[in-house]
Amino acid sequence: MVMTDMVSRSGDGASKDRLRLWIRLLRSTRFIEAELRDRLRREFDATMPRFDVMAALYRNPDGMMMSELSRHMMVSNGNVTGIVDRLVADGMVKRWQRDGDRRTWLVGLTPAGTENFAQMAAVHETWVDELLGDLDPQAVAGLTGALQDLKSDWEGRK
Amino acid sequence: MVMTDMVSRSGDGASKDRLRLWIRLLRSTRFIEAELRDRLRREFDATMPRFDVMAALYRNPDGMMMSELSRHMMVSNGNVTGIVDRLVADGMVKRWQRDGDRRTWLVGLTPAGTENFAQMAAVHETWVDELLGDLDPQAVAGLTGALQDLKSDWEGRK
């Protein structure tokens, strides 16, 4: 990330501090994300969007409509469709029609998909634990709380 | 993002807290990033990678080699090449051979590119200021510091 480059330019002090915070947030998140992405690919031959789709389906064992899944994922419907197609081909996801509604299709994990995701999720949690492991519990709580405030501010503005 | 879904599962308390922090980091960053991406597209018809490339070149008025630019960007060389090609076609970037080294090409902003980027960067800073604006200066400093610790931890581990 190169946006640090811009910090020394215009704007008042508080505005510069916020820009600096944003660059740090972006850089930290990208760093961890890249590491997790590499490990998912290496260890499980899985992409991050595939992992996210499986996580959503794991929590919704009664199935989800594709539109629900897309909303959940913050990615385009088209992308989700491709990921689900691939998961179906791999035997990890199945499609079925909703009872009494022949036009509505639901998707959900197969038993093999459930087992595969549970395994990935457990390992993924140990990775996150390792990557954030040097933060003491107090720092973790402080950061989480501060980000929560930020989040609710945005939600209020939306 | 659906990974919140996983928090209630296995792992000890501290490990769960770290996973929760990671999910919040990812979600906060994606939210702001999506907003900035939308605004860059709407207001300047620019993508985030284009903005990042221009930011790097803005800070290096003597030019950069493509390999330097790629390292800086954390994206693939191929992507950077496409972005630079487009910027050249738009008159924002020029290429030239390094003095005394006919095989090495440098890229840099044209005067039009410099002006265009300076304008975008100023507006971008006001957006970040607005999106993070409800955080008081103390919270901004606290978050920045905590993330800095995190960053140096990773760097130490690499």
Structure description:
- The structure is a homodimer of 158-residue chains.
- Chain A has a three-stranded antiparallel sheet with strand order 1-3-2.
- Chain A has helices at residues 13-44, 48-58, 66-73, 77-89, 111-131, 137-157, and strands spanning 64-65, 93-98, 101-109.
- Chain A has 158 residues and is mainly α.
- Residues 1-5 of chain A have low confidence and may be disordered.
- Chain A contains six helices and three strands.
- The first copy, chain A, has two domains: 1-44, no CATH class; 46-133, Winged helix-like DNA-binding domain superfamily/Winged helix DNA-binding domain (Arc Repressor Mutant, subunit A), CATH 1.10.10.10.
- In chain A, helix 1 (13-44) packs across helix 5 and helix 2 (48-58) crosses helix 5.
- Helix content of chain A is 67%, strand content 11%.
- The radius of gyration of chain A is 20 Å and the shape is elongated.
Main sheet of chain A: which strands, in order across?
A: 1-3-2
Number of helices of chain A: 6
State the order of secondary-structure elements of chain A, H for helix, E for strand: HHEHHEEHH
- Helical fraction of chain A equals 55-70%
Mean pLDDT of chain A: 84
Q: Using the coordinates shown, work out and report the CATH topology of the largest domain in chain A.
A: Arc Repressor Mutant, subunit A
Task: Tell me the total number of β-strands of chain A.
Answer: 3
| Oligomeric state, counting identical vs distinct chains | homodimer
Q: List the domain count of chain A as a whole number.
A: 2
- The CATH homologous superfamily of the largest domain in chain A is called Winged helix-like DNA-binding domain superfamily/Winged helix DNA-binding domain
